[in-house]
Design brief:
Layout lengths: L1 H27 L4 H7 L3 E11 L16 H7 L15 E12 L5 E4 L9 E5 L5 E10 L4 E6 L20 E6 L7 E14 L2 E9 L11 E3 L5 E8 L10 E5 H14 L5 E2 L2 E5 L2 H6 L8 E6 L4 H4 L7 E5 L2 E2 L6 H6 L6 E8 L2 E8 L1 E2 L1 H4 L7 H7 L1 E5 L2 H7 L5 E6 L4 H4 L7 E5 L2 E2 L3 H9 L6 E8 L2 E8 L2
Antiparallel strand pairs: 1-2, 1-4, 2-3, 3-6, 4-5, 5-6, 7-8, 7-10, 8-9, 9-12, 10-11, 11-12, 13-20, 14-15, 15-16, 16-17, 16-18, 18-19, 21-22, 22-23, 23-24, 23-25, 25-26
Helix pairs in contact: 9-12
């Protein structure tokens, strides 16, 4: 009998202990109900409208006339029927996109992502109380993916902004947005990493989280447990188009610095060093006598840039900027970009096995103030490069009669996506010789949008071709 009683008592005791454990775990989990209730009024839904030319009646399902399959030509000739819902020839169709944002001031300023409102003809902001207000684009910065909007309304509910520098890995965070159009959806998770650098976003030290983010969350706020905005949800890593556990947010400190400049000046100014850099590999670190493979190796300089004027040389390894460590080469653009033109920065350099300091007065990023030598600002932005004339010695060495040297490439530009780098010498575009910066501007202005264009360049003394697609 005792043998039956003892196990029963032990089993009951274990069940009680497990029950207490579950209750204790549940009590330790964060409760977001108060946060959501307080913050939701300051979160907005953003819809945009862009007017586009409709397809002509001679195109069908994306085929141009010359691409129409023979089976369709057999039945319809060259005039194919329009798919249901397409506009008639001569009319225009509208495309809407949905995103999120949040109010940062009672005067009606709203923060969101630049890609949410990119090329929008109309922007509509819908508040939590179902008011719909037209919004004006104050300015946007594609480099950080931040846009500032303004609506004509007073006493709007605003969100409290936190300090993204205080975020810790493992900290609980939550997002409110409109994934797939489902307004005011709440998701939560933890901070997975901080100071993430993504390949084409060199100016943003992203916050990585496992908060579920999907299309429509873009531009919405990321909160800490205090209900403070610590980031703007911007990107996800996905292989399927849906959430896969990795999402990225722009730190609110970075976003507000950009927003202040957009509000005050209508554009963002960044410091410019004028160097071409590359990562320090383990082999390079060993060759330089370095214990660790850190820093940014200066591969080349703009001869008229701030770094050259400040005494920086090719072969220097930049270890610190104003006392902040350059852990890897991708960190350098962020540290320089957040400084203002004209600021003096102190660089810690490794040169010939010795550490030295160098003071450099930063210049203005060429693309921000039209200092690139290109004749036309629109064409400069279209290609996204800054260029200088090629000196006679270089032309003779490469056996070319013209060409322009690329001194800087704007991130996310057509040039960057095509693989053009600073230091390349552009020789021809679409089989037309480039002999000057003004000629480059004229050629770019005339390039078509509907096909890839061959561009010939010299890199490290060797000739190669890349394909440009202007759309």
């Amino acid at each position: 009998m005792k043998r039956l009683i003892v196990p029963a008592v032990l089993g009951w005791s274990l069940m009680v202990l497990m029950s207490f454990s579950v209750v204790a775990q549940a009590d330790s989990l964060p409760d977001f109900t108060e946060l959501v209730e307080d913050a939701s009024p300051g979160v907005v839904n953003i819809s945009t409208t862009r007017t586009l030319p409709s397809r002509s009646s001679s195109s069908f399902q994306g085929f141009d006339n010359e691409d129409i399959p023979e089976i369709f030509r057999h039945f319809f000739g060259d005039r194919l029927p329009m798919p249901p819902g397409n506009d008639a020839p001569g009319q225009r169709q509208e495309r809407q996109s949905l995103g999120s944002g949040f109010v940062i001031s009672e005067e009606g300023y709203v923060l969101t992502n630049a890609h949410v409102v990119e090329e929008a003809d109309e922007i509509l902001v819908r508040l939590n109380d179902r008011r719909e207000l037209p919004a004006e684009l104050v300015g946007s910065d594609p480099q950080t993916d931040v846009a500032l909007l303004k609506v004509d309304a007073d006493d709007l509910p605003t969100l409290e902004l936190g300090d993204s520098e205080e975020l810790k890995v493992g900290e609980w965070v939550a997002a409110i947005g409109s994934p797939f159009g489902f307004d005011y959806s709440v998701t939560a998770g933890i901070v997975s990493a901080i100071n993430r650098t993504l390949p084409r976003d060199v100016y943003v030290p992203f916050i990585q989280t496992d908060v579920a983010i999907n299309p429509g969350n873009s531009g919405g706020p990321l909160f800490n447990l205090e209900g403070e905005v610590v980031g703007i949800n911007s990107q996800i890593f996905t292989r399927s188009g849906g959430f896969m556990g990795v999402s990225f947010a722009i730190p609110i400190n970075v976003a507000m610095d950009v927003a202040d400049q957009l509000r005050d000046d209508g554009r963002v100014s960044r410091g410019w060093l004028g160097v071409m850099i590359q990562p320090v590999s383990r082999d390079l670190a060993e060759s330089f006598g370095m214990d660790d493979a850190t820093g940014a190796l200066v591969a080349d300089l703009d001869p008229e840039g701030p770094a050259a004027d400040g005494g920086v040389r090719a072969g220097d390894v930049i270890l610190e900027v104003n006392g902040e460590e350059v852990e890897r080469s991708s960190v350098l653009p962020r540290l320089i970009g957040r400084a203002s033109p004209g600021d003096d920065v102190t660089l810690l350099l490794l040169r010939d096995g010795r550490e030295i300091t160098q003071e450099v007065a930063l210049g203005s990023w060429p693309n921000s103030e039209n200092e690139s030598g290109l004749a036309d600002r629109d064409n400069q932005v279209r290609l996204g490069v800054s260029v200088n004339e090629v000196d006679a010695e270089t032309r003779e060495r490469l056996n070319i009669s013209g060409g322009v040297e690329v001194t800087a490439v704007e991130p996310q530009s057509i040039a960057a996506q095509s693989g053009i780098r600073a230091g390349d010498i552009l020789v021809s575009i679409d089989h037309r010789e480039v002999t000057s910066a003004s000629e480059l501007s004229e050629i770019v202005a005339a390039l078509p949008d509907d096909r890839a264009i061959p561009l010939r360049l010299f890199r490290d003394g060797r000739s190669l071709f890349v394909a440009l697609r202007m759309d």
